[in-house]
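This part of the workshop introduces the protein records we will be handling. A learned vocabulary of local backbone shapes supplies the integers on the structure line. Getting from the letters to the tokens is the skill we practise here. As an example, a complete record with its sequence and its structure tokens follows.
=====
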Amino acid sequence: MAATGAAGPRGDVAVTKGRDVVLVVDDAPGSLGALASELEAEGYTVLLSSDGADALERLRWVTPDAVLLDAVMPGLDGFEVCRRIKAEPAWSHVPVIFMTGLAQTEHVVAGFDAGGVDYVVKPLRAAEVLARLATHVRNARAVRLARDAVDVAGHGVVVVDARGRVAWCSPRARQLMHECFGSDDAALVPLQTWLADAAAVGPDGLLCRACGSGELLARRLGEVALGETMWLLAWRQASDATTLRLQRAALTPREAEVLSWVAKGKTNRDIADILGMSPRTVNKHLEHVFEKLGVETRAAAAALASRAGGDA
């Protein structure tokens, strides 16, 4: 049962341009005739699959706007089908709505844990399914458009779900993640751990992680739909990172002066003469500078100041 149109690559009836496509997966599709008719009357193109394997095969030809998925089926059950859909980048944005007679809490939780966005219990009420479907299709389209815009703009955006798992990341974010945490999907785990470390957030609201010749930064942008949190990742070169480190050190004007002369290669006695203080006082200022910058030697402090342009 599908909308009219030209034959598709698998011999199915092709989808009609401009109509939202819904894939309905149920091992007893004949029992869904009334629902399919209601969907078509609402302007949807309806595709039917009788098992999980067939549904995944159909997805290789047509990416629907939503999937209505039975949880209990022979072979691949709905939960596994949903997990496979969400694991495939080309399909992961598609909202999956479970429809099943399983109403126990553990089954509902399993549906959401597999990646479903909603859960309706049989016997189905067509009006309720249509209302939920319209909302999820609309939300998914808005999110997809926003994410496409992020991709085009080249921003490093990561979306983390309520359990702290990465639900989506832009190409730029994935590039940064791989450069700083690893070259494959195993990098997801340390990234998630890092973003979950609230204690590491600095006074400026940033998470900072030294990486190569600079720092990876993460700023929490706030919550989005379904308890998800959005983070903005960015890269900062070593010179910028050094400047920020000096700013965070909150040196006093006198300490900054002493450090600037150290960066110019002056001895404590030279600095004492220039600033009109004793060498012992210069040394005391330097002790405070070392502590605030987190360095142990005069050379390290001078190197930091030099990388920042000598302007402490």
